[in-house]
Amino acid sequence: MQMLTLLLSFCFSLSTAFYFHVGEREEKCIIEDIPSDTLVTGTFKIQRWDIGRHDFLESAPGLGMFVTVTTYNDEVLLSKLYGLQGTFYFTSHSPGEHIICLESNSTRLVSFGGSKLRIHLDIRVGEHDLDAAIAQAKDKVNEVSFKIEHLLEQIEQIVKEQNYQRDREENFRMTSEDTNSNVLWWAFAQTLIFISFGIFQMKSLKDFFIAKKLV
Question: Start and end of every GOLD domain (predicted)?
Fold first, then answer.
């Protein structure tokens, strides 16, 4: 049975790089809170544990990585099998949390070092591959142009994330105000019920005493 481990990453980080360990056919997922119409780039690399050297090696023959990206509405944005290392891309269609899941494609990890792998993962939100673009530049003017374009994209992404965060805060404030208002009205209704019940009890006791000629 697959184990699903959720690794919560910081919201709106332009670049999140880390590594984690997985076992045989173990799936691990990262949750990213992403604005709409935002390009997300992920780069990963697999290392295998070598029992003899007691270290992770750079290669893991016969292994690959299956990458799946979904939203909380079960919309599949990406589902693809990669090799030992690779880069995947997807664009968010709507704001909210996106689930990025990675799973090794081998069922014979025991023969590759005790069913233990190390996955290096770098998630970049709203960034293009600037190094690749610069490498293709033919002169300094193009290189500077690429850098300026990259900076403008980063500024645009920061503004987009700020607007998204502002909308989230506004929705949270409205929800809090509605909750406080409902609590206030419920307390007021409870008070009226208690007062009405007390008046009814007093009237019932008075009628009882009058009927028994005690007053």
Answer: 27-125
